[in-house]
Amino acid sequence: MINKELVIIGAGPAGLAAALSAYEEGLRDILIIERESKPGGILKQCIHDGFGLHKFKEILTGPEYAFRYIEKVREKNIEILTDTIVTMLTNDKYIKAINQEQGIMEIKAQAVILAMGSRERTSGGISLPGDRPAGIYTAGLAQNLMNLHNIKVGEKIVILGSGDIGLIMARRLTLEGASVKAVLEIMPYSNGLKRNINQCLVDYDIPLKLQHTVIDVKGDSRLESVTVAEVDNQLQPIPGTEYDIDCDTLILSVGLIPENELSRQANVQLDDITGGALVKDNLETNVEGIFSCGNVLHIHDLVDYVSDEAEKAGKSAVEYINQGKKWEKENIFVEPGQGINYVIPQVISKEKDQIFSMRVKQPDTDKTIKLFCEEEVIFEQDFDKVNPSEMIKIDIKKEKFKPLKGKSIKVVAI
Amino acid sequence: MKIQTILIILCFGKEFNESGGGFLESQKFDIVVIGGGVVGTAIARELSKYKANVGLIEKESDVGLGASNSNSGVVHSGFTAPVGSLKADVCMYGNSHFEEVCDELDVPFERVGKLVVALNKKQVAELYNMQYVGSMNGAELHIVGKDFIKEKEPFIDGKAAMYSPNSAITSPYELTIAYAENAHTNGVDIKLNTEVVEIKKKNTKFLIETNNGLFETNYVINSAGLFSDFIASFSGEDRYKIYPCRGEYYVLDKNASDLISRLVYPVPPENAGGYGIHLTPTIDGNILIGPSNEYINDVENEATTKEVMDQLIKEAQNFLPAINRDLVIRSYSGIRSKIVPPEIGGFTDFVIEKSPKYDNFINLIGIESPGLTSAPGIAKYVVDIIDKMENLQQDEDYDGKRDGITKFDQLTLQKQKELAESNPNYRDIVCRCENITKQEIIDALKNPLGVKTLKGVKYRARATMGRCQGGYCIARIIKIMQEEFGFDVKELKLESNKSKLFSGQAKGWE
Amino acid sequence: MPKKEITCILCPNGCDISIEYDDDELIEIEGAVCLKGKEYARQEIKDPLRILTSSVMVKGGDTSLVSVKSDKPVPLENIMDIMEELKVLKVNAPINIGDIIIENPRGIDCNIIATREVEDK
């Protein structure tokens, strides 16, 4: 049995930032476990730019952003076990991991930071009807194959889902000589950043079809065509609007799901809406000494915010290792209300300044986000425009919470 | 020159191949089985117990790619077929021998039991009817009440149920592959990617013309499933027509596995409105919802449809309210070989008989549920037909034992440590969702039948069947295929020869 | 008079800028909060520039590809030309971040630099 003070599962942007922050708090006995051969997580395949605007005031590509952290982790000699996969995590912070060099390892950690990131929603997850020929790929897999393995998935592409990954792949595939016929989006608005719509679709004359979806997939061995239809406000296909698009590849960019299988093993309580853990303001889960940050906690759109969140998790883990469990005298539960999809953290203490991360349910303009505690507005902030695809961060000082008598806060957007 | 040509023809038995336009060599067999589904491969394996030169012809790139890999994997206890029917006979034989066969072939098998659940008084009455018929067939069936249901299956709503303790589950595709591999080990020549074009009579024998050569054989066993009517036509058998009936399924995330432990079926619905769909735990730990029932025109249309998928969820929620769409990780469909159109419906027996014209051409037509359960019984039945004509001799070299791929995830920690210590490929987890190691992927690709497709890996090693559906492991499996087996990007296939996975390299000369 | 809507990418504000122009000459800009943004908008009408990101094959490295980018924005209309150049290029390991892979591809004023490191096999 190997004993460690802090084990971080995942050496992506979250794991790396958490490790550095823990180191800066004075901790030295840190182990990062990473299943890929190299650290960097999903950033390794995000070879496009747009990262680091907040954190470094520069526009960096994914690998460059990752390197900023990898370099420091190396400098500080923080241990990363690559090509190592965690197969078990218990709520006692017992970890079973396996790699080629050491075989099966058993580790007992004082604190664990969950930084496993997310997986993609699949064709099964959206009940994609039709045949099952070769040529249907999720956007992340297509990106991985192209950018890390030099494999082009196809030549005539249709993309379902206008989230950033789909938009980026539209451009990527076009640059490599494929023909992207259309990007389809079931909602009346796109999920992706405006700049990506411009630089990935408009630049290359790729049509974006809002309120459209794929209703049939045809192909015997390899994909031959998809049938597309317009949808109504209830997302149901409108009869008579169907048409076929000839293609050999269908790329699905239909959402990310936090990868919490290990968390479940450890009896970490999950939030149905985020798919990630229920956390306190120090990012600790309901299991003492297990913390969560990054995409495994909730899906982020800016890696800069992942780093901020992970830094906090790192600090909290060290605090826990040094001071043990802190019994908060009065916890307040935070709930999403009208117009708000989710808020993190879901539990806060009255004694601390708070940073809330949240997403609205629908795009809108001139909205006010309010925090209520038993009918009383304790905070409000105006926004010119709000978008579900852009995470909102709100800072609130502890003075606002101290006088509260109630047990819960509701966050609304009106 | 002329003399040499004549000698060559005599030695190799060349035939004039009309479609090829020249003299071609034909391979000679005593018996050829057409169709590599679970029944065809079961027959081939049964035949391999005897001294006979046996061949199996399969048009797809692997065995079991028809109905054999897209059913519920249920081993029925035989209470639905009428007493004395061929279906009942082979099904009961199959059920009682299934565990033994799975044991010999290293295929998973578990008697989980089945509950047929009644939601109202009328359905409760129906339960008693079913129990009567089933008992006549020799099945052990009990009528149980609400308390039993609540205790055994707390998530199920029901008034009463019929409990069948002998109903079991297995992995239908693993079984088909195992049958084929054991047949192959025992001398059966399995020809994949080989499609029958025509079958002609040649004296007392048959000449089978395929896209992959000519085969001359004494006996033809037509186990071609959805195409059994087409193959049967070459024997002068034209009484039967296959009416393809598609069944769609939903596969649920393993996180939902606690919802049921046994097979849970509703009482079959009276009207045509519902499907009477089942909830089936799979031997791998998922839950299946389905199948639906839809007569279709295209015999190979394994698509799934939105209407059916919506209907499946709705019906499942009738007696398992905890089910919701978020739990679905995959949908697929299988096609049944029905021999009567929907207007007629009702019970039809298996057709397993010598063709009207030729005693040595045996047709198997309409092998739908309980085809999987019946496979051992059908194999015995068919071999008996031949034995009566040929007096088959036992082959002492026959070895019915087959070992499948070692499943790392199912070993004890101690055994895992031992294996991991001796072989670095067991220290490399490729499929994260299902805990499949690199060695298992390599074993799958090294399979005796020579199948080297992504689906071939899937059905042998289970990789890509988890909740991420290959999102993580596909890239790793591809790497193994390239590095360990030397495949070029352009050669990698999903399933059939035309199902190329990729268009080529992103960078570099083509 | 033609109008164009763009989103400025220079800072996290992501200002939505409306541009009215006539024959490549800027008439009016609305929505830009700073001078840099205005300049970006002007450039967009005249000659849109983009940072190019792609990958290049590697020989003798621990990966088969190195991710690269142009060290400054290049004209959108030249992007496919540069991609042609990168398609058959092969560069030797080891590679450090920032190493120049190719200078002035197809005569365009920029360098293609590595955005990751690649070690020897």
| Global structural class of chain C | alpha+beta
Estimated helix fraction of chain A? 10-25%
* Low-pLDDT ranges of chain A: none
Question: What's the number of extended β-strand segments of chain A?
Answer: 28
Count of DSSP-assigned helices of chain A: 7
User: What would you call the structural class of chain A?
Assistant: alpha/beta
Q: What oligomeric arrangement do these chains adopt? A: heterotrimer
Question: What can be said about the biggest beta sheet of chain C?
Answer: 5 strands, mixed
- Count of the separate structural domains of chain C: 2
Estimated helix fraction of chain C? 10-25%
SSE inventory with pairings:
The complex is a heterotrimer of chains A (414), B (510) and C (121).
Chain A: E1 2-9, H1 13-24, E2 30-33, E3 49-51, E4 60-61, H2 62-75, E5 79-81, E6 85-89, E7 94-99, E8 103-114, E9 118-120, E10 136-138, H3 139-149, E11 151-152, E12 156-160, H4 164-175, E13 179-185, H5 194-201, E14 208-210, E15 212-218, E16 225-230, E17 243-246, E18 249-252, E19 256-258, H6 261-265, E20 290-292, H7 303-323, E21 331-336, E22 340-344, E23 347-349, E24 354-360, E25 364-373, E26 376-386, E27 392-396, E28 408-413
Parallel strand pairs in A: 1-2, 1-8, 2-5, 8-20, 10-18, 12-13, 12-18, 13-14, 21-28
Antiparallel strand pairs in A: 3-4, 6-7, 7-8, 9-19, 15-16, 16-17, 21-23, 22-24, 24-27, 25-26, 25-28
Chain B: H1 2-12, E1 14-17, E2 22-34, H2 38-47, E3 54-57, E4 74-75, H3 86-105, E5 109-110, E6 114-118, H4 121-136, E7 142-145, H5 146-152, E8 160-164, E9 168-170, H6 172-185, E10 189-191, E11 196-202, E12 205-210, E13 213-222, H7 228-232, E14 243-252, E15 263-266, E16 278-281, E17 287-290, E18 294-295, H8 306-319, E19 328-338, E20 351-354, E21 361-365, H9 371-390, H10 413-422, E22 429-431, E23 436-437, H11 438-445, H12 454-461, H13 473-485, E24 504-505
Parallel strand pairs in B: 2-3, 2-13, 3-10, 6-15, 13-21
Antiparallel strand pairs in B: 1-2, 4-9, 5-9, 6-8, 7-8, 11-12, 12-13, 14-17, 14-18, 14-19, 16-17, 20-21, 22-23
Helix pairs in contact in B: 2-6, 2-9, 3-9, 11-12, 11-13
Chain C: E1 3-7, E2 16-22, E3 25-30, H1 35-46, E4 49-50, E5 53-59, E6 65-70, E7 74-75, H2 79-87, E8 90-92, E9 100-103, E10 111-114
Parallel strand pairs in C: 5-8
Antiparallel strand pairs in C: 1-2, 2-3, 4-7, 5-6, 6-10, 9-10
Short descriptors:
heterotrimer; A: 414 residues; five-stranded parallel sheet; 28 strands; 20% helix; 35% strand; C: 121 residues; alpha+beta; CPE0013-like fold; 2 domains; five-stranded mixed sheet; three-stranded antiparallel sheet; 10 strands; 17% helix
